[in-house]
Amino acid sequence: MWAGRVLRAAPSAAPRGRRALSALTQLRGVLEEELDAIRGAGTWKSERVITSRQGPRIHVDGVSGGILNFCANNYLGLSSHPEVIQAGLQALEEFGAGLSSTRFICGTQSIHKDLEAKIARFHQREDAILYPSCFDANAGLFEALLSPQDAVLSDELNHASIIDGIRLCKAHKYRYRHLDMADLEAKLQEAQNHRLRLVATDGAFSMDGDIAPLQEICHLASRYGALVFVDECHATGFLGATGRGTDELLGVMDQVTIINSTLGKALGGASGGYTTGPGPLVSLLRQRARPYLFSNSLPPAVVGCASKALDLLMESNAIVQSMAAKTKRFRSKMEAAGFTVLGASHPICPVMLGDARLASCMADDMLKRGIFVIGFSYPVVPKNKARIRVQISAVHSEEDIDRCVEAFVEKEADATQGGRKEPGRRACHPREIRHRAGGGQCLLRRECPSLARQKRCLKGEEGELGGRAAPAGRRLGAAPEPRGSPSLAGSPRTKQGPAPRVEVGAAHPELRGRVGLLHAGGWGRRYYLFSLLPSRPPPHPTMPSICLTNPEIPGMQGDPQVVADLGRGVEQV
Ligand SMILES: Cc1ncc(COP(=O)(O)O)c(C=O)c1O
């Protein structure tokens, strides 16, 4: 019996080994292709490595000297507050490194219960439940609370964790337009037949620093018998007169039913999240919320830090007021200097630039001036809405704020003068970028001409140029070179002369009206969509005409394989 099994297994052993090897090789191929697509699309996210504590002044690996930090969610500066650190050390000493257990098995300490009670008190709610993160709190809530009989109505720009949490539940899903109360009302009317209706919104939206109109939302909710859920990650601790959040700011603390928030931003910045609201809801979450039931307890040091952060906030208003005053200073100085800063009074200050490359280059230049800020562009924010997001903290000094404003002003002046202040570097000015792009063509390249970064696609370039048609009547294959060709220095196009182009009359129907980087399936080749020409009569009513270029493949022009490849699939558009 035993021998028989071995004999039967033996013949297939070698092929299984080979299969495993080829599966790994295949996996590597798939992963490389995915990674390449991300790089090619210009959405690659890299991490700057901080070699100091989080705070207003940090040290960044590879950058000499101290850096003024304007991109952390450390709104109240409590991440490195001495009392917060001391409380963390004390909890570590007294309660150990961690629980090696989930809460309901063997992972609840007195400090977890104390912190939950403190959170509920802070928000003036009946009870609270801790999670390893607010992402988990959002992942746990909707599935535990809502059934197929219920409905959830969600702002279209809600945080990814709310979207994912809602995906996990079986309730009927309605998405209303961002902050659009008429649309919310229409969706509430549609949802009237459901058992429960839950309106879900961020309190403050992190990309624009805009604030949900909670008064109107609560009014509609009461009119249509709905509950209100607010994610307060970018509000807890600092919005409202005593930092309770958006509901305090807008005077609706008694009308918002459920709040989820984080300990990982203003409240010490370590990690952790929570839900606070009606007692029976919290009890249900302890029975049903999967991230609570199946993930480890918060480490005591984290609990100690967050608990002290709440103590500090409940003792005094001074930190909150300091942050508000500095936010006001930054916003008013930037506006006086001619910049557009979105939002009203939130410490998230999006400095609007529009142009994706300008935002990316400007953020890099600011770092060279000792200011750490991040540029955001499509697809993180809508097309043509690229910005640099500046985040103010209570621990920035007034001089820090002024220095940040000065750096923006200097950079702007520099860019307008064509970068003459810094020999050897090109300015990133919108006019120049438009000029380089050939006024309306959809141009994708793999290098940043301004900074000559090899193999790095321009961040969000498709966003700012995408969808613009080439002028009517332009002949395929005869599109003019982008003006300002010096910007192509170093790219294969200048080495080989004008890029070959090919007219392709048949393309994947999904291409219509969109631009992007194409991967032609099965050929390991990458084609660059150069322009869409919807104004030209297509060869067939369902097929747009497109013009392709691939500077890396000499003689691609007329390659019939291009046509075949395109028919096989477009992996990314
Ligand atoms: C609005 C919002 N909700 C939830 C989260 C997730 O919070 P945490 O970092 O605690 O998982 C974030 C974090 O970026 C956020 O901004």
TrEMBL record:
GO molecular function list: glycine C-acetyltransferase activity; pyridoxal phosphate binding
Alphabetical list of Pfam families matching this protein: Aminotran_1_2
Classification via InterPro entries: 2am3keto_CoA_ligase, Aminotrans_II_pyridoxalP_BS, Aminotransferase_I/II_large, AON_synthase_class-II, PyrdxlP-dep_Trfase, PyrdxlP-dep_Trfase_major, PyrdxlP-dep_Trfase_small
Keywords linked to the UniProt accession: Acyltransferase, Pyridoxal phosphate, Transferase, Transit peptide
Compositional bias of kind Basic and acidic residues: 413-431
Record domain Aminotransferase class I/classII large: where: 67-408
Enzymatic class: transferase
EC number(s) recorded for this UniProt protein: 2.3.1.29
Substrates-to-products reaction catalysed: glycine + acetyl-CoA = (2S)-2-amino-3-oxobutanoate + CoA
Compositional bias of kind Low complexity: 467-484
Disordered: annotated segments: 413-432, 464-507
Single GO biological process annotation from the record: L-threonine catabolic process
Keyword Transit peptide assigned: yes
SUPFAM superfamilies, sorted: PLP-dependent transferases (SSF53383)
Cellular compartments per GO CC: mitochondrion; nuclear speck
Cofactor(s) required for function per UniProt: pyridoxal 5'-phosphate
Similarity-based family: Belongs to the class-II pyridoxal-phosphate-dependent aminotransferase family.
Classification via PANTHER family: 2-AMINO-3-KETOBUTYRATE COENZYME A LIGASE, MITOCHONDRIAL (PTHR13693:SF102), CLASS II AMINOTRANSFERASE/8-AMINO-7-OXONONANOATE SYNTHASE (PTHR13693)
Record protein name field: 2-amino-3-ketobutyrate coenzyme A ligase, mitochondrial
Record organism: Canis lupus familiaris
